[in-house]
């Protein structure tokens, strides 16, 4: 799933995750998690005990993700060499292959280092990166709308005469821009219209059914039937115009 942008030196001998003479002993798993929580990198849901990365950390990670996710192998290896003080990109490539370092782990390593107030040792950062790269981020759906998924959206739209489902994703500049305008966007929607939201990357059934393949997006329903859908950053004026067309001019028909 894509983002619709219409209208978005640390040194060391190797990339090794083990301790060196200057490192303290690696913290155990619980201490490692506590450090990530204290640093605002992850949070634990008090109801489900689910561990997820925080929205604030995801903002930091997005910067590095945009830089390295689609970078060439040469650029990736050059960056690894620079960060870990290796002699060359070739040497970095050998270390990456030998240790199985992924781009996701490298991005997480850099993002954690940037996000924490105090930088841990290289070994601890590497362990943190491995943990964080395996965690799912929290939902990108803003709190102001009802969170939905593939198992609940049909019930939501069919149980309201008029409903709008918004679509969001992580690492999405136009999504973040829409969240900045969310109060004004919601104010532009008639009071009788129920508003929900879902994580587009986690809801393939919704995307297939509605024909939406990018975020952000809005889908307007009446009596459970899709009446209009569009992708790209939605301004308050655009949302107001769509609501007028579907719910007033069209009278829900």
TrEMBL record:
PROSITE patterns: THIOREDOXIN_2. It comes from the Archaea. Residues 135-248 form the Thioredoxin domain. Residues 1-27 are annotated as: Disordered. InterPro entries: Thioredoxin-like_sf, Thioredoxin_domain. It holds the Pfam family Thioredoxin. This is Thioredoxin. It comes from Halococcus salifodinae DSM 8989.
């Amino acid at each position: 799933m894509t983002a619709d942008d219409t209208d978005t030196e640390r040194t060391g001998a190797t990339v090794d995750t083990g301790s060196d003479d200057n490192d303290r002993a690696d913290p155990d798993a619980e201490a490692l998690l506590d450090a990530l929580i204290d640093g605002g990198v992850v949070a634990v849901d008090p109801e489900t005990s689910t561990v997820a990365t925080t929205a604030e950390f995801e903002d930091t990670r997005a910067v590095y993700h945009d830089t390295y996710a689609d970078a060439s192998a040469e650029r990736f290896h050059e960056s690894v060499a620079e960060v870990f003080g290796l002699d060359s990109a070739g040497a970095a490539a050998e270390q990456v292959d030998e240790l199985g370092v992924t781009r996701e782990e490298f991005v997480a390593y850099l993002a954690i280092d940037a996000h924490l107030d105090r930088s841990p040792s290289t070994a601890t950062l590497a362990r943190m990166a491995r943990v964080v790269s395996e965690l799912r981020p929290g939902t990108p759906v803003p709190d102001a709308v009802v969170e939905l998924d593939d198992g609940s959206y049909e019930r939501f739209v069919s149980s309201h005469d008029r409903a709008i489902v918004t679509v969001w994703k992580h690492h999405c500049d136009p999504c973040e821009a829409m969240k900045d305008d969310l109060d004004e966007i919601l104010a532009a929607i008639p009071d009788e219209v129920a508003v929900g939201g879902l994580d587009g990357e986690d809801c393939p059934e919704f995307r297939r059914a509605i024909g939406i393949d990018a975020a952000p997006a809005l889908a307007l329903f009446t009596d459970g039937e899709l009446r209009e859908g569009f992708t790209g950053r939605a301004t308050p004026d655009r949302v107001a115009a769509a609501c007028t067309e579907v719910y007033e001019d069209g009278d829900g028909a």
